[in-house]
Amino acid sequence: MKRKMLLAIAAATLAGSALAATPATPGDAAKGKVIVEQVCAACHGADGNSVASANPTLAGQHAKYLESQLKAFKSGERKNPIMLGMASTLNEGDMKNVAAYFSQQKPKLREASDKTLLPAGEKLFKAGNTVTHVPACMACHGAAGRGYSDQYPAIGGQHAAYIVKQLNDFKAGTDRKNGIMADIAMRMTDAEMKAAAEYISGLR
Fold first, then answer.
1. pTM of this prediction?
2. What residue ranges define each of the domains in the chain, with the CATH number in brackets?
3. Which residue among 19, 58, 118, 177 is the one 20 to 30 A from 203 at the CA level?
């Protein structure tokens, strides 16, 4: 009897491990496209390339990151009244599908609007500021700003004004909460934020 119980426990443990190891089901980009056209396109563009700097470009962003941010907006963890309203209409399947669609779109090339800031921005992005202990942006976001999965988003080619806004939000710790980014942003001057953002916006 005892042996049977131990075997049952072992079998259950192995089954649980197998389930945990099963990769997540990818979203359906075709279904996501329909939702994007109805809900997201007005602000982010039908192909995820927004024309307004207040609205981030989502084309080419990592699906897991997009999905996690939609959940954060819906739960109120990330505060934005407009996105709260939009995300509240989506269930988890919808979010997965929307994320899959945007992740498969190609971001349009962007140029820095103030090229005089590019040398300073490049230095910050690649080497950081050793005096104030600001790490290189590329350490987490990659040399081309493409990021890694859900932890480090793609930032290359993003609107410079949007990047500056996010850095200030991290610094304030109100609309966005992230310990690592808050610490980095607090060490950056306004001029450094702008310079880094201009350089990042032109990355390919």
1. 0.86
2. 29-103 (1.10.760.10), 115-201 (1.10.760.10)
3. 177
